[in-house]
Amino acid sequence: MERTSPDDIDDLKAADAKDVHRAVREEGEKELARSAASLLWSGFAAGIAINASLVAMAILHAALPDTPVRPLIVALGYPIGFLIVVLGRMQFFTESTVTAMLPLAHRPSWQGARRTMRLWGLVLVANLLGTLLTTGALLHLGLVAPEVREALPALAESMLAKDAMHTFLIAIPAGFLIASVAWVLPNGREQAFLVIVAITWLVGAAGFAHSVVGSAKAWVLAWEGMLPWTDALFAEIMPAVAGNLIGGAGLFTLLAHGQVQGEPGDEG
Fold first, then answer.
1. Distance from C-alpha of 67 to C-alpha of 88, rounded to nearest angstrom
2. Contact indicator for 78, 201 with CB cutoff of 8 Å
3. pTM higher than 0.90 for the full model?
4. Is the Cβ–Cβ distance between 195 and 184 less than 8 Å?
5. In this predicted model, what pLDDT tens digit does every residue of 4-57 receive, in sequence order?
6. DSSP code of 1?
7. What does residue 97 show for φ and ψ, rounded to 5 degrees?
């Protein structure tokens, strides 16, 4: 009978919190060191790609009868854009809330804070520009079937029932959950598909507010004349951005960083 070596046993063990913290922190350091042009192009690509979630949900919405379970099935389309963005290693604002924040939490400094704000600002602008231009193309250039095009504003219309404070509050759990994707993946690379699908489906099914996917919905309403452009930005998108930051950069990072404090081997 073949014996299992100590090295093989170590390979079978899941990384502990300290190792995950280091892996995510090092990934954040790489992101913070990227040039502005690199961040902008990657963020713009992510802003375009995330619209695959909106299109997938619109296809399901158009195909299904209006029943109580339709929202749960439609939410199965929500992970599509996230799979493209995360597995394609594109720069995404909500994922960077934890990856860019851990280096700052590990070694606080004014320079680190400036680097973090720089990354968030560049990536957020690029993500929003990508969703703005792509939703305009989907609605006005005939890129999707007529029934799918009609479903896009129908999907986004539910945003009109929420005020800015409500959007802010339901964006906090979304920020927490999406930040958890970056934390879970180092231990779940072989199950990355299922990890991303499970977590992002929950965000979509629960109706939590994600700033980038939400921006696509808000831009759809603005393109359609159902919402003023200023309201789309300041009453829908920016409250979601603030809530995502609190849930991801604040709450999740605080808990993730706090659990490794004082542990040996975390000095690196």
1. 35
2. yes
3. no
4. yes
5. 344 443 443 456 667 777 777 788 788 888 899 999 999 999 999 999 999 999
6. -
7. -60, -35
